[in-house]
Amino acid sequence: MERKDVWTVMIRIGDEIRLADLVYLDGVPHVVWEWHEQAANEHPGVTIPLDPRHLQETPGFADQDFVYGPPIQAPDSAS
Description:
By secondary structure, this protein is mostly beta strands. It is built from no helices and 6 strands.
């Protein structure tokens, strides 16, 4: 796989399927829910950790690098 800092992952939130940015923080994959800007540099502000066992590479897809199996819960709807 190509060396990158940010990948694209297909995720499911409830009944909705969407593409999201994916980063690795301390070796753990995270969906970036919000990017924050500080001193003209963007960094992941709100993230959701993913279980790497459910993350699958999608070689040959132009618009995504991974697909994630189970649905995730949006941080603003977490209880």
